[in-house]
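User: structure tokens for this one?
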Amino acid sequence: MLTSTLLQSTFAQNTQAPELLTSYYSLKDALVSGDSETANKKAAELNKAIEVADSKIIGSKEKQNC
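Assistant:
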């Protein structure tokens, strides 16, 4: 749920969308194939991409409120 909300917000802001989608689909593919080691790595990558996108979204909202 959080991921889909963040992805929707990211698309609305038009920032970091390709990186988030690539990370998300890489994780999904690893999970579907049952590769837990790769899934763990891809989950960490997705988490980092979300944190970067989240900080950019929060930063742009703060700029709008000033």
